[in-house]
Amino acid sequence: MTDTRDSALLSINGLKVHYPTDEGVVKALDGVSLDILPGQTLGVVGESGCGKSTIGRAILQILDKPGRVVDGEMMWNARESGGQTLDIAIQNPDGHEMRAMRGGDVAMVFQEPMTSFSPIHTIGNQMSEAILLHQDKTPAEAREWSIELMNMVGIPNAPQRFHEYSYQLSGGLRQRAMIAMAISCSPKLLIADEPTTALDVTTQAQILDLLRKLQEEQKMAIMLITHNLGVIAEMADAVVVMYLGKAVESGPVDDIFHRPKHPYSQGLLRSIPSVQAVGHEKLPSIAGSIPHPFNRPSGCTFGPRCPSFMPGACDASVPRYMTLDGTRQKVSCFLHHPPEEVEEVPSDD
Amino acid sequence: MTIFLVRRTLIAFLTTFVISIIAFLAIQLPPGDFASVYIQNLIGGPTAPSTVGNLVLEEQLRAELGLDQPQVVQYAKWIWRTVRLDFGTSIEHSVKISEVIGQRLVNTVFLALGTIIFTWVLAVPIGIYSAVKHNSPTDYTVTFVGFLGLAVPDFLLALSLLWIGFTYFDISIGGLYSPEYLEASWSFGKFVDLLKHLWIPAIVLGTAGTAGLIRILRNNLLDELAKPYVVAARARGVPEWKLILKYPVRMALNPFISTLGYLLPFLLSGSVIVSVVLSLPTLGPTLLRALIVEDLYLASTIVLMLGVLTVIGTLLSDIMLVVFDPRIKIAE
Ligand SMILES: Nc1ncnc2c1ncn2[C@@H]1O[C@H](COP(=O)(O)OP(=O)(O)O)[C@@H](O)[C@H]1O
Ligand SMILES: [Mg+2]
Description:
The complex is a heterodimer. Chain A is an alpha/beta fold. Chain A has a domain at 5-243: 3-Layer(aba) Sandwich (Rossmann fold). Chain A has helices at residues 2-7, 52-60, 96-101, 123-134, 139-152, 158-161, 171-182, 201-218, 229-235, 253-258, 263-270; strands spanning 10-20, 25-36, 41-45, 68-76, 86-87, 106-109, 189-193, 221-226, 238-243, 246-252, 322-323, 330-331. In chain A, the strands form 2 sheets. An 8-stranded mixed beta sheet of chain A has the order 6-7-8-3-9-10-12-11, sandwiched between helices. In chain A, a hairpin with a 4-residue loop joins strand 1 and strand 2 (25-36). In chain A, helix 4 packs across helix 5 (139-152) and helix 7 runs parallel beside helix 8 (201-218). The longest helix of chain A has 18 residues, at 201-218. Chain B is mainly alpha-helical. Chain B is globular, with a radius of gyration of 25 Å. Chain B starts with a helix and ends with a helix. The chains are: A alpha/beta, B mainly alpha. Magnesium ion (MG) binds at residues 52-53 of chain A.
């Protein structure tokens, strides 16, 4: 709401991202809204294909071709650091502002630490590159700083690792190197897109511990993208549940886990035996399957899979995404929709 | 790294040895040996009646060259002469083979280098542009022109250029040197003169290769551009052009470095017809002629040289690949 929007580090409102392909337009983000508060971890959760990675990419304006932002705003609040509020959505992707932001104020950690490093450049080369781009350092200083960062994230033999290639490191070390690179320029926001999905369970836990430790030290916000609710439970302060390019529910992590309001969130939570269990590779599925991207249901897109589907309401119009009275949760569902808020649907009262 | 180099060098020597045996056997293949062909040539062709005198002469020559000895001994003698760059005598020209091919070898290497440079200078930037702006009008145009380049036979291109030069500019564009430099020894002036002539055959020989290289580079690069390491580099703020050149282009070029070695012999054999059409003094036409008139030592010398050039080229490619791609160092 307005209070969080003002204090938010990044406030995304009604963001739409489309991928116009030969077969049709994929509406990967169809009006998503979320706020990221400074120093907090926002978990973004949802089934594969719901647009989680697209949000992360959109924030850095590095959408894969042919994706583009078609509507909405992404307000970056730089007032705290003496700058002005910047709408990322209307920035030129190749412009100075965006390039300074990438790897500077906003850094990213990817799912595949192996393929996210160039196989023919050393780890050190790529780390120094990030540092030299954003900081006023000589190559020797950048090397020193890289090695210090590698020590910080727990990479043994850092000076030697600096000269090695990604395939010489284990998966866990690679992801540590990726994280070291991401925090090299003290970002205010770290976007971690499925940072532990490609790792084994033990390593997953270690990487999550590391992220938590670094967040405390660096006071950065983390946007943690995952389809793993266990990871969210362990890490997040707040959660956004996404379905088909929209946020369907959000709120503090405890509220979402204990009192989910949206049938989709309820389904997701029911599908894991214990929210404490880290290491679920995949969410057991909710009834039905995700609709084809070109063929979205009308009204509430979750309608066809929803156990509480109400004919005449859910398929007629789209529920508003709004704060539920007396809670800190926002939800988009006609079960919680005050009747006067219903639009474009003939009401019976 | 050192082990890798030593091993590759040993393999190179072994390959050269095998090639030399094949080249040697090729000499033995046609009916008759060097002595009989030589004598027949002297008296005017295989149909001329042999006389007793000729036969005696033939036997003498045979003894002189050691042709009556076992093949292994003959091979040893031949290879011993060859490594001292004594390739024997050309039957047709009756001069030392080194004299027949020396200048032509130099011309051939220059032509090959010129063609490779032409190909790369043109293909690499176009291929990169085509991939980065893929499915743009420029990309489609390049693709279309590229297919034309692939489809038009070299000799047709050569003939067309000759004709255009002759009818519209009144110049003859054949050859590699102006008449005044033909017999001159090497000087800066001669080199400049060579460059002035070289570009036409380089275009003719390089067109198909350029089109092919653009095509493959574009497709390799398209694959690479979508890889996570490119996205990751973009996400840390690397400027787009710098990013493309540093990461995906280098990856996309790797396959070409490894095939660089094969280009040399490929260009040699591919250049025979073009060299005939454009009257270029290269090895190609000489090899063709030597094979037709059964000038055995000349032919096998050229074959051996092509083989050695291939081996050297491959070795160089291997070394370059190790320098460019660290993964190979470790794997070896
Ligand atoms: N480059 C692209 N071209 C076309 N469609 C894409 C592209 N990238 C993603 N999409 C589509 O956008 C939707 C969201 O994808 P993504 O953001 O990767 O989802 P998630 O990360 O939640 O799995 C999917 O339907 C996917 O097929
Ligand atoms: Mg994803």
